[in-house]
Design goal:
By secondary structure, the chain is an alpha+beta fold. The chain has 6 helices and 14 strands. The strands form 4 sheets. A 6-stranded mixed beta sheet has the order 1-2-3-4-6-5.
Amino acid sequence: MASLVQPGVLSGKEDLYGGFIIDHDSVPHEPAAFASTLKASIDVWRSEGKHGIWLKIPRDRSTLIPEAVQQGFDFHHADAGHVMMTLWLPDTPSTLPPNASHQVGVGALVINSRGQMLAVQERSGPLRGRKIWKMPTGLVHAGEDLIEAAQREVEEETGVRAVFDCVLLIRQAHGFAFGKSDIFVLCALKPDPDEQVIVHQESEIEAADWIPLAQYTSQEFMKGVALYQTLTDKCVSYAQGTYRGLRAAKLEASLPMLKKPRVDLLIWGEDDAAQGQQAQGPITRSTHASCM
C-alpha cells in the first residue's frame, strides 16, 4: 500500500480494495480547516475512482466528528482513544466490512494426574453467590492467541501454571454484550508442575480448588440442557483418554504478495485413521499424549 501526499489533500495510503486510509496525523485540529481540506480531498478521491475512505479521529480532535458526519462519513467502530469513520464514494451499495461481529472467550479444563479438575466459584459475574463450580474463563485480548489466553486466565484466576494440550470444543452464541455474538473455545490444559498451591484472584474469584470431575458434571444447573450435557460429556471423555480434541499450532503464514511476516494459529482435527490408531488411557502425569 503506497503512501500518497498531494497538496491540499489529506495524506494517507491506498488499501488493497481501491479505498484510502487517511493518516490521522495529517488531519487538521481546527474544524474550519478540517472542513475545507476534507471537502477538497473527497473531490479528489471521487475523481480518482476511490471506493471506501477510512478516517480515524483521535479523542483530542473529537470536535471534528460533526463535520465528518456533515460530509457523509458514518461511524464504523470506536476503541479507547479514537473513533473510526467511513465514507463510501461509488454510487453502488457499500462493500466495506462491518465492525467486528463477535467477541471471543476461552475456557480452561485443567486436569491433574489424580483426575481432579481445577474449578472456581465467581465473586462477580452471572454465577456470583451461587456456590457453583466452573472452569476458569475469560475474554481473549486483542493480539492474543487462544492458547495464551487460556493459560493466562488459569494463572490469573487460580495462580496455577498450566500448559495447553488441545481444543475440546467451540461454541457460538448470539445476543451477548451490546448485541455482539460470542465464540467460546474450550481448551484442555495440564498443570505444570502437577502439584501447585492455588492462590485465587481475590477481585473476581470467591474460591478455587481441585475437585472431582464428577462433582462439576453433576451440578444441578446444567442438568437437562443439551449444550452443557454435550460439553460435560466431552470433558469426561477427555479425562478418560477417549477423546483427543483438536490440535493447535502456530504456523508460518507469510505470503510474498503481502510483504508482511505472519505466524498464525491453526486448529485442526486428526484423520479418521489417525484417530483409530490413537488409543489413550486415562490422564496421568506421564502417559497422556499431548495434542500439540
